[in-house]
Amino acid sequence: MSASKLPNGPQTPPLIQTFEWMARPLEYMEACTQRYGDIFTLRVGPVFTPQVFISNPQAIQQIFTTDPKQLDSGEPAGIKFPLLGKQSLLALEGKPHQRQRKLLTPPLHGERMLAYGELIRDITKQVTSRWRVGEPFSVLPSMQEISFQVILKAVFGLEDGPRYERLKLVLIALMNPKKPLMRTLMILFPILQQDLGSWSPWGIFKRQRQQIDELIYAEIRERKEQPDPSRSDILSLMMLARDEEGQPMTDVELRDELITMLVAGHETTATVLAWAFYWIHRVPQVREKLLQELDTLGDRPDPNALMRSPYLNAVCSETLRLYPVAMLALNRLVKSPLEIMGYQLEPGTLVIPSIYLTHHREDLYPQSKQFKPERFLERQFTQYEYLPFGGGNRRCIGMAFALFEMKMVLATVLSSWQMELADDKPVQPVRKGALLGPSDGVWMIVRGMRPQNQLILETSLR
Q1: What is the arithmetic mean of pLDDT over 10-33?
Q2: Residue 197 domain flag
Q3: d(CA 17, CA 417)
Q4: Domains in the chain, number
Q5: What is the C-alpha to C-alpha distance for residues 235 and 225, in angstroms, rounded to an integer?
Q6: CA-closest candidate to residue 225, choices 207, 210, 239
Q7: pTM, full prediction
Q8: What count of Cα atoms within 13 Å lies in the side-chain half-sphere of residue 3?
């Protein structure tokens, strides 16, 4: 195979490729794979830089293990989210990136993480208590509300009050724009980032961002003026963290990482939960088997026991496999000549592991379009075959927290309520900005409380 040119790919004009990629990403990637194989080149986006898409596990292993000095992500690789800031973990590279990962890892793992179980359970019960028996509803908004409250209370450490409500209102407006496609295009094409006043899309975005910054910096300032060693929220733990030179994170670093956790953890977790409820109720034997396992754990399962539950874990894993919320791992920029799958990639080339295509390889996942949690009980997949959270030095730092939240919410809801899908119509995946979500939010009907919970409720009322 030639080592002097880019892998093959569509020969249509870059603008047409960009339109195809924006309008129907899954079909476009699958068509390219059928025609060109495990590696192909697209030219999409504002500057039409060659982007090499890869779904070969051995090549993905090479990408994830190559020295970041030769191949890395960050702002130079086109990771530019105007809301996040330049000190975000996603934008950094090299030693600053390594430093930030070390500072952020402890609060999001281990016993500290498990301590949020009660909070997640209480938020879930509070949100779902507003569901009305017999009335169809879209489950996605409820999952967004749960995920949002978990981030504001567990991560930001905010209590109910004026600042919580103000931040909540602005963040909801920012995270759910009235014209999501326009927001995506503005991020992709900087030429559209024109502030033409408070009525213009970019002007609205900038003013919302300024309001959020004022509220977050006020919270950080207040914490520094009135330190409370008993606090266990993630912001407090981040403020206590010190690097190898004994230096804390700056206010700008704290702000950028808080926003990154919100952007990376809010809509993603909510969307995965909506997909999980869809598949659990779409495949009756999955629901039955999962409820049998949850029933052995009691009314208020111990977080440790939940994390070890094999079938719950398999259901979560299969949900993340079938329609991964992030279709792609983070872009990597080639910094010095690199050979992958027989192709010599020159500096400036972008390399992109395709999570979706890898998760639908028939040699790894037979009948890949079917929801079969058992595949995760029958064999172990490597981190290059199964990669819903990316990999290498760019694997999502909130992975453990996201899985924990997902399991806590599913267990709490399924143990409490008898639910079913509102109709038999298959739910299709659609692009929602940079993410992949269910087309209509997954409509469901609550039929009542599960019998054991009804008994517990009646007993407590006597």
Answers
A1: 94
A2: no
A3: 45
A4: 1
A5: 15
A6: 239
A7: 0.91
A8: 7
